[in-house]
Each structure stands twice: as structure tokens, then as C-alpha cells.
Write a structure and sequence with these properties.
The structure is a homodimer.
Chain A (H helix, E strand, L loop, with lengths): L12 E5 L3 H9 L6 E6 L3 E3 L4 H5 L9 E3 H4 L6 E5 L2 E5 L4 E4 L4 E3 L2 E4 L3 E3 L17 H20 L3 H7 L1 E5 L3 H17 L13 E5 L11 H14 L2 E3 L6 E3 L2 E4 L2 E4 L2 E4 L3 E3 L16 E3 L11 E3 L4 E3 L11 H19 L14 E6 L2 E6 L2 E4 H15 L3 H17 L17
Helix pairs in contact in A: 1-8, 4-5
Chain lengths: 427, 427
């Protein structure tokens, strides 16, 4: 007879909301801490968001850029993964409610549920101009884009055909530039020879930007390089151009109008609505300003990380909304959370900037590594290398490489499937 | 100045409905004929249906078993591919209408729009027990299966947890056997160690069959081998068992009941409803009986091929509903169609049976090559070889091989993503 087990000492409960780059990094950083972690996400997969535009444009399949969260964390025995959509939380009673009625308590919370699209008060535009944040968004966008070409082939009227072959992307940040560059390549190369009535090579891709330059987060010289590469590809870039209306037939720009069957929103993001429940002031985009410790002054058991937070780091620099920054913030939040449970003071995070890359198309990209700036082919190879190495899981990496190598030589795209029901307002 | 082009001689218009194995084979067989071909399909992809269960069970992604139809046919200049859902046809006026209002005429028609699920008059079962015919079906089924495991982890009640971990497959034909075998492997191997509250290894997979044996299209000895392999895997096989009711909570078998959150229908197929518009007698399953020439006696401009047809070939054998038979029938229909346009008499088709294979699980399968019958590991390797070689497109083949090799060694499944909206009646 063995001794009865010692009475279990209750371990602090840590709740992490969101399995993006910040949330997943926080959970992993807690692997050896004496805590019980619950990771809640509304999907069952961790998404490699920087390549989501490739799914939307049929270059990659969903599974190639997403991994089941519980598979990623299967060996971390102190973590339970739950599927659920957080709809309410109370930082005073330390409870969170999900849409299906599950109630989760916490001794410490890491809120990392990211951002969603923002239409600047014009939420009625959402159904005409979908955005790109989730895998479902990407599959819906892929369906829209591919259906537009199919409808051009079916069109019996020249104006309708032209509208079907016009693609408008609103917003020239990284996502907008990637989408516009890829769409023009699909029209000019991938689909050539496949249609008998419409000619995809006549398709227009229009990139609208309210500000004076594309990729405004980069130095002006690199923005200029990016603009030149976009125009060289055939994208119509319009700077200092404000959208005043969007409907099923196109986009209004003040007095002008572009007839387009497909409009894609890449212009604005807003923090998850869950942030409002914290009862602290939010910034204009609905994000949570937190100190460099990532801990809320008003609720010290609550940490915020990733795209939901706006942070000035220990060196006084704004932490950007990119994947490596979210991972660093997730780890910093976990570290401070663990210190707090041990009774130690928090340590402010210091963002390590490893550079930034944006791709525009085949052998077209820009890269900013501080003193080293690249564009064109070298930047594109750097982009490819970084993204393939960064993808989670060996299998994905190998399969994605095979796919990309194939696409590179053939211009084919491997995931040109229309699936799902139609949800376009025009039928 | 060159001469003006000769006045175009109007070429006969051939309309092919359905880009499955039969329709695609018919189109390809017409590549060198002096005809204008229109290929109409309701999806944009040709589907490798024999591997659809792999998509439903998260082993493969959609793009790995589907190819864009117009990409497959891009070099066949006499063929126009159109996306559309045929809703009506008139063999007298030789016109076909699609759901979006397109009207297509023909001088000769190949009807190859296949089969759909049949619930034997119980269409109310469809929403509780979905079937598996299209890529959308497969993605919906994948979502249901993966959500059931997620809900088991969230369940607070033992009976609910058990129901979530019970999977009922109705019908022990090839699809039912493949699904049951794969589901038990997912529960026992793929998901082990990934859940903290529920234990996937306790999941039940129940395979219900109204007849006296599984895989009834095979010789009885091989059916017995398949049954033994299924039971060895852990599948509960119930023969001579008739389903009397299906609802959101489970399945009724006369007085008995199985509580199950997931029920999958693999029991019956029916010819596409479009067949009724032909005005000829159909068989009990709504398929079109055609002579071995595949030409309708009542409407000699109409040919029927693939799963929509029931055919006795020139040697008096029933042509089975498998992919190689559909391809042979598609080619035979195209040949007779071309002969008819040249004023030559039709030639009856002669089915070349190259054998049949069914897989049950990892290194479990049966194979019937006439005098050579295999089961277990040799049959499974034969199945794998045939299916990989048969897949369309080199890229797909290579990527699928990498994926399968990885799955084989690790038991992991590469496409475990829940996407799309929920459409379950219970929430």
C-alpha cells in the first residue's frame, strides 16, 4: 500500500485569451511555472497571419499556415486548451464568460485577443468590402476573387465584365500592398489562357490610400521603391485618395466612382471589443494603452499583449503591430505575471527590433534592417527565407517550400478552390 | 493585305454537364474533334472523390484533392469552361438553364452530373446526418468531427461528454468503412495527449449496416477480412441493423438508441434531380438506364455517363460506380457522340475492370484484382500506390506523398482546422 497522495496545493490559475503570436508565446513562457494555464481561443488553430493574404489569393491552403492549438501545446502538461468565444469579462470578480455559457475564473489574466477590422464608423461597408483577419475571412475573400473571374467569363455585357475584372483594395499598408501585388499577378499570369470569353489580363487592380505614401511604416525612400514596384507590376496606385462610399457595385471617391465587383478592406484595425470590459481608457482604435510592464495599473492581475495593446517600451519606442513584437510582448507579460505570483516587481519590456519586410510580388519586396535597406529581388529572397523559417512545424515548412517553388516556376497557384456558400449581398 | 478570313463554318456545339471523372474524360476525348465544347459545372474544381474522406477527417486539405477545371483544360482550345448550376433542361428544344439565368443550347449533350445523397424518403435526416459528396460536405463534416472533440473537452456532464465522443456512421460501403476506420484512428492516436479533461481514446465509432456484410460489392471472403480488420481497429460494426430515426441527439435502431453528437450518412445515393427532365424512365435510385452506347433511345443527341447512368456493357456486365468506370464511360460517350456527328453508328462500351481497392486504416485494406486478392498491409500499399498515381497533377502528387509519409510516421493529421460557420441544428 502506498501512502495516500499529498493533498493537492491549489496552483494559481492563469487564463490566456487568444492563441495568436502573443497569447501562444505567453503560454509557452509559463511551461515551467507552477501554474495551471487555460488558453481560450475562438478558433481551434494558431494562424500564421503574415501569410493569410496567400490563402486569400489561392496560393496556399488553410492548413499550410495554421496549426491546431492543442497539437502545438500537447506536451505542455500545465496547459488546457479550450475552444470558446469570450464575450464578457469582469476584472473585479476575475471571471470571463464565453458565448456558450462557460465561465472561467483567473488569478492572473493575459488578454491577447488581437484586433479586428475598423470601418471608421461605416460598418455598413463591411459586407461590400470584407477585411482579412481570420482564416474564414481568407476563404471568403478567395471565393469572391475567383467568382469574379468566373462571372466575367459568364458576362454578356461589357460593362458588367469590366466591373467583374476590377479589384479595389482600400489601404496601402502591408496587407493591402501584398493583396494588390498578388491580384495583379494572378490576372496577368496565373489565369492567362484559361478563359475563352473574358481576358483576365485586362483586369484592373486599384490600390487606394488616404495618406501620401504606401507602406507608411517604412522610411520614405523604401515607400518610394515599393510604389515604383507596384506600378511596374501594373497596379493603379492612388495616393491621398479618400473613399466616400462603398456598395455592391463599386467605390465612390468624392465625385468619382470606380465600378468594381470586388472591394477589399485593408485600411483600419480596431482592438477587440472585449477590451471595453476592462473599464480603462482605450485609444482611438479601441486598443488598451499599457505601461512597458504590460500590466494594467487599475487591475494588476490583468496583462495585455499583442495587437490589443499599445505599448511604449523601456527605451521609449512604440512597439509595432507585427508578429515578432507580439511574441516578445507575450513572453514579457508571462514573465511579469510569474514575478507577480512570486511577489517580485515587474520588469518593463524592451523591444528588440529585428527589422521589417514587406512583399509586393514575385521578386519584388522591400526590407528595412536599420542601416541595411533592400528592395527588389534581394528583399524578396530575404522575405521568403524569413517567412518560411518562421512558419510553425517542420512539415508545414517543407510542404510550403514545395508549393512555393512550384508556383515560382509555373506561376500556378495551388489552392484555387471556391468553397462555401455565397454570401455576397448581390446574390 | 491578307485575305479576309474564310466565313466560319458553324461547328457542332457539345454541352457537357459535370466535371467529374465522366464529364472530364468526355471533354478530353473531344479535344481533336471539330466541335465547340462547353463544360458546365456547379463548382470550379474537378474533385478526386475517392480521397474526399481524407479531407473530411482532416488528413488532407481541399486543394490537395481538387484541381481548378479551367486550369486542367487550359490547353484544350475547343473547350469553354463555365461555372453554373444546371436547374432545367429540355431535350426537345435542346436547351439547358442554369440557376443564374444562363441558357445554353446544344447539338449534342453529355449529361454527367453524378449522384447525391439519398435518405430513402427521410430527407429530414439530412441535417442531422450529413453525407459526403462535395468538398463543402467534407469541410462541414471535418468541422463537426473536430467540434465534437472540442465540446467533449468543454462538457461538464458525463453523458454529454460520452455523446460528444460517439460517432455513428450509417452505411458500410467504401465511404462508410473508410470514415469509420479513420475516425477511430484519429481518436486513438492522432488526438491522444492533446486533451486534459476528455480522453479521446474512449471515443466510440459505430458503423451501422442494414445488410449482412460490409463492402458488399466485394467477394464475401474479402468482406469478412474487412470486417475483422475494422473490429481489430476498435470500430463497433453492427450488421443487419436498420436505422429507424436520427435526430440531434443520436440514432434510433428500433427500440434501441445510440446517443451520439455526430452521425454521418454513407448509406445511399440518388441520381441528380436533373435526370427527371429527360422524360425517360429512371431506376429506383433516380439514375438513367442507358444502353451500352450510352445514348438515349428517345433523344439520340443525349448521352449519359458516370454515376448518373446505369449501364450494362457490351459483355453483359453492370458497369460499377467507381472512378475508372466513369472515365471509361465518359470516353465512350464522347466517341459515340463524335461518330454520330460524322453519321457513323455508335459502338457499345466494353468495361475494362482493373480491380477494386478499399482502405480501412493504417496498413489495413482489401484489394480484389480478380484472381489476386489481397488484404492487410499488401492491400494497403496497393491502395496507396494506385491513389497517389491516380491523383491529377504532379505537384499534388508530391505534396500528398510528403503529407502522407509524415502522417504515417507521426500519426498527425495536417488539416485539423475548423473553418466556416456553424450549421448544426443544436447550436
Amino acid at each position: 500500500m502506498s501512502d495516500p497522495p499529498a493533498p493537492a496545493v491549489p496552483r494559481p490559475r492563469v487564463l490566456v485569451v487568444g492563441a495568436g503570436f502573443a497569447g501562444l508565446a505567453a503560454v509557452r513562457a509559463l511551461a515551467r511555472e507552477p501554474v495551471d494555464v487555460v488558453l481560450l481561443d475562438r478558433t481551434n488553430h494558431h494562424l500564421f497571419q503574415p501569410l493569410l493574404y496567400q490563402v486569400a489569393t489561392a496560393g496556399l491552403s488553410g492548413p499550410q499556415i495554421a496549426a491546431p492549438i492543442r497539437h502545438v501545446l500537447r506536451r505542455q502538461r500545465n496547459c488546457t486548451v479550450l475552444l470558446g468565444d469570450a464575450v464578457a469579462l469582469d476584472p473585479v470578480t476575475r471571471t470571463l464568460h464565453t458565448a456558450d455559457g462557460t465561465v472561467l475564473g483567473w488569478d492572473a489574466l493575459v488578454l491577447a485577443c488581437g484586433a479586428t477590422h475598423a470601418y471608421f464608423g461605416r460598418d455598413d461597408w463591411a459586407r461590400f468590402a470584407p477585411g482579412l483577419k481570420t482564416l474564414d475571412d481568407a476563404l471568403a475573400l478567395r471565393r469572391r476573387v475567383l467568382l469574379a473571374f468566373e462571372r466575367a467569363e459568364l458576362a454578356t455585357d461589357a460593362a458588367d465584365r469590366d466591373a467583374q475584372l476590377t479589384f479595389v483594395v482600400v489601404g496601402a499598408g502591408a496587407t493591402g500592398v501584398e493583396l494588390a501585388g498578388t491580384l495583379i499577378e494572378i490576372a496577368r499570369h496565373t489565369l492567362r489562357d484559361e478563359f475563352r470569353r473574358a481576358d483576365p489580363r485586362t483586369a484592373r487592380v486599384v490600390l487606394l490610400e488616404a495618406g501620401p505614401r504606401v507602406l507608411a511604416a517604412y522610411p520614405p525612400a523604401l515607400s518610394g521603391r515599393a510604389l515604383a514596384q507596384l506600378r511596374d507590376l501594373g497596379v493603379e496606385v492612388r495616393l491621398d485618395t479618400r473613399v466616400t462610399g462603398i456598395d455592391a457595385g463599386g467605390v465612390d471617391l468624392g465625385d468619382a466612382r470606380i465600378a468594381a465587383a470586388t472591394v477589399i478592406w485593408a485600411a483600419g484595425v480596431a482592438g477587440s471589443p472585449l477590451a471595453r470590459a476592462l473599464g480603462v481608457p482605450l485609444d482611438r482604435a479601441g486598443r488598451v494603452p499599457v505601461p512597458a510592464t504590460l500590466q494594467l495599473d487599475a487591475h494588476p492581475s490583468v496583462f495585455v499583449a499583442g495587437d490589443l495593446a499599445t505599448v511604449i517600451d523601456a527605451a521609449g519606442r512604440a512597439v509595432p503591430g507585427v508578429a515578432p513584437a507580439a511574441q516578445q510582448a507575450g513572453r514579457a507579460a508571462a514573465r511579469n505575471l510569474a514575478r507577480r505570483l512570486r511577489g517580485e516587481p515587474p520588469v518593463p519590456m524592451r523591444y528588440r527590433d529585428r527589422g521589417a519586410l514587406a512583399t509586393i510580388g514575385r521578386r519584388r519586396a522591400i526590407a528595412d534592417f536599420g542601416r541595411l535597406r533592400l528592395w527588389g529581388t534581394p528583399a524578396w529572397w530575404a522575405w521568403l527565407l524569413v517567412h518560411v523559417l518562421f512558419l510553425i512545424g517542420f512539415r508545414n515548412r517543407l510542404v510550403v517550400l514545395v508549393d512555393w517553388a512550384w508556383s515560382y516556376w509555373t506561376f500556378a497557384r495551388g489552392a484555387r478552390l471556391i468553397v462555401g456558400r455565397e454570401d455576397r449581398p448581390d446574390g
